[in-house]
């Protein structure tokens, strides 16, 4: 399998769509970040399996129902499809942080399920706006890309101040993250990513 076919795991809130501190509870609150759908299409068309991984504790907190989350995911899949791309799978954790489940990031259950169910190769990339995404990537052998949308700027400050393991790359948004990944697989040039940490 060619290097350009390595899977790319994407966080949802704050990466693909705008984040809300009070949780995204319905499709009406789901607003894609400009360029996000096109970025996913570009990944898919380059041959990457694209998998979305998202913690959705709003379900356990009774802020929304499973059906609300799945409606959002059907809509996301449809938007990518009509733009010419494919999402290979969407995995979400419905549990409360205190539940001790194996699927809530940074635990590895969702990546392991995706690899098993979608017959994915080991390795690839993860794009997220939180250190939990980065930690998940480190635990599962993925190259980590932190975006500065969503919680990204605050999380980057935390990573620096607390001397956490730095991400592989830090960049402005999902569009530039995709450029980095495609460049890393020899597909396109990229001149917008930050090799050094921003001074936030």
CATH third-level topology: Rossmann fold
CATH architecture: 3-Layer(aba) Sandwich
Strand portion: 5-15%
Give the helices and strands as they follow along the chain.
EHEHEHEHEHEH
Total number of helical segments? Answer: 6
Q: Supply Rg.
A: 16 Å
CATH superfamily: HAD superfamily/HAD-like
Major sheet: size, sense and barrel closure? 6 strands, parallel
Q: Give the end-to-end Cα distance, rounded to a whole number of Å.
A: 39 Å
The unreliable regions are: 189-200
Q: Which CATH class is shown?
A: Alpha Beta
Task: Give short descriptive properties of this protein.
200 residues, 6 helices, disordered C terminus, alpha/beta, six-stranded parallel beta sheet, 6 strands, Rossmann fold
In words, what does this structure look like?
- With 200 residues, the chain is α/β, with parallel strands linked by helices.
- The chain has one domain (3-184): 3-Layer(aba) Sandwich (Rossmann fold).
- It is built from six helices and six strands.
- The protein has helices at 36-45, 66-82, 109-118, 131-139, 152-161, 174-184; strands at residues 8-10, 50-55, 89-93, 125-128, 143-147, 169-171.
- Helix 4 links the parallel strand 4 (125-128) and strand 5.
């Amino acid at each position: 399998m060619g290097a350009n076919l390595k899977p790319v795991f994407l966080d949802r809130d704050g990466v693909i769509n705008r984040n809300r501190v009070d949780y995204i509870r319905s499709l009406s609150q789901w607003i894609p970040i400009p360029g996000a759908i096109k970025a996913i299409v570009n990944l898919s068309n380059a041959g990457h399996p694209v998998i979305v991984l998202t913690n959705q504790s709003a379900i356990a907190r009774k802020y929304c129902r499973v059906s609300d989350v799945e409606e959002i995911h059907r809509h996301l899949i449809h938007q990518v499809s009509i733009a010419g791309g494919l999402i290979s799978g969407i995995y979400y954790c419905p549990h409360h942080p205190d539940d001790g489940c194996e699927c809530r990031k940074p635990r590895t259950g969702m990546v392991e399920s995706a690899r098993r169910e979608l017959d994915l190769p080991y390795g690839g990339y993860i794009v997220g706006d939180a250190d939990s995404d980065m930690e998940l990537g480190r635990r599962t052998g993925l190259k980590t890309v932190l975006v500065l949308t969503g919680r990204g700027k605050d999380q980057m400050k935390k990573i620096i101040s607390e001397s956490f393991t730095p991400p592989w790359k830090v960049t402005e948004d999902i569009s530039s993250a995709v450029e980095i990944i495609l460049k890393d697989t020899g597909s396109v040039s990229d001149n917008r990513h930050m090799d050094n940490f921003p001074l936030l």
